[in-house]
Amino acid sequence: MNEFEPRSSGTGLQMIVLDALGKRIARGEYPAGHILAPDSVGAEFGVSRSVTREAFRGLEARGMIWARHKIGTAVRSARFWNLLDPDVIAWRTDSADGAKQMDELMELRELIEPAIARRAAAELTSESISELEVCCDEMHASVSSADVNLFIAADTRFHRVVRESTTSGVLTQLMKTIDATLAARYSSSHRVFSELTAKSVERHRQIAQAYRRRDADQAATLTLQLVREARTELKHRGGSHHAM
Where are the domains of the chain? Predict the structure, then answer.
């Protein structure tokens, strides 16, 4: 993905500008206090003032910039950013704070995903559990064939099926952040397979089997183990990502 390719949801030139500026801020190219001049931004991207204004609104909504009277639109310190916003997570992934962010998000996964798993054990349909089992088969096959794209698709679908099973609005909202975490680990600069990938696949299969038995306690326990093992491996490798 190049700098001018929009990652954010939505369409239009404002999304391209938003994505590019968000990445620059996250990477520290525009440090706290830096003034963003609408005319300069518009000229760089070849867009109108209204497009630039919409992009600025998107950054402001995420706490990354603010309009200061008689000064202009300034970049804010990271402590003001909405660090759980999926776009902010994506923008920070390849920044100097990327490894720290991933560890913090993995800690969040430890808190949230067991609760999701507990509910999923009761709420997943038989058809959905069968889909999870298919995902496990595909992950296993992808390791044997070293098919990274198949693994990513199957792993992502596994977690999406579990997420979509819950009727909890609050947990569903939090899972949007988890989705962003799962996407961040598959950044092109990070590894997918490691010597522990086979163990991760087996852990996914054990979780699916717990769902099949409607064993909420075991599903929650195994899910916590899965996330903790992934977090430990990430720390061991100094932040390089592997299959989770």
Answer: 13-80, 93-236
- Sequence-separated (6 or more) residues with CB below 8 Å from residue 195: none
Q: Which of 148-152, 222-226, 229-233, 239-243 has the highest mean pLDDT?
A: 222-226
Q: Are 151 and 210 in contact (CB under 8 A)?
A: no
| Burial class (CB within 10 angstroms; exposed 0-12, middle 13-18, buried 19+) of 13 | middle
Do 59 and 41 touch, CB atoms closer than 8 A? Answer: no
Decide: 240 and 191 in contact? Cβ < 8 Å. yes
93-236: CATH topology is Four Helix Bundle (Hemerythrin (Met), subunit A) (1.20.120)
Q: What is the pLDDT of residues 9-42, one digit of tens each?
A: 445 889 999 999 999 999 999 999 999 999 999 9
| Residues comprising the chain, all counted | 244
